[in-house]
Every structure is written in C-alpha cells, then in structure tokens.
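thread: overnight batch results

M.L. [08:02]
morning all. the overnight job finished for the chain we discussed friday. pasting input first so we're all looking at the same thing
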Amino acid sequence: CDQRVEALDGALTLELRASAEPEAPRRINFAFEKGTIGLRTPWGQRLTVPYPVPFQLLGEEAKGWLDTVYLSESVRVSRGNKGTAFVLRRAPLP
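M.L. [08:03]
and the structure it wrote out:
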C-alpha cells in the first residue's frame, strides 16, 4: 500500500509504504515499512530524503487500521485507529 501526501502545490511530498491486509467487512489493517520526504527546489530540482522514522523499531506503534466510512469509484473516506479522518483519492491509472 503506497500513500502520497502533497502540500504547497506539490513542492513538498510525503510518501509512505505499508503492508496492508483487509479485515471484513470495512477495515484495513496496516503496518508502515518506510517513507520518503520530497522537496522541489526553487530551481525545479527534486530532492528526496528518507523519512526519519525507524518503523521497524516502533513495533506496534507502526501498526494501525482504517475503517471505511464511504467508498466510491474515486474516493474513500476512512477513520483511523487514532481518530483521524482521511479522504483518499484514487490515483488515475497510467
């Protein structure tokens, strides 16, 4: 499962990779594995650095779940195990 968050019109990105496993009927269990932070310089260059969180050392803290509240062809609205709401948009197919 890959997640990408963009801010500042794409100048700042956070990309996370997690293993994911469905749990019936509306829950997805996940465990973060790695991440990167991307920055676009004023000169248009893209810099990428590792996300500074040692997921393997966090154990259970790197795991969580998302319950699906709404699902359509292009949008999923979920609530996470820590109470956070997420609106996830399906990326267009290449």
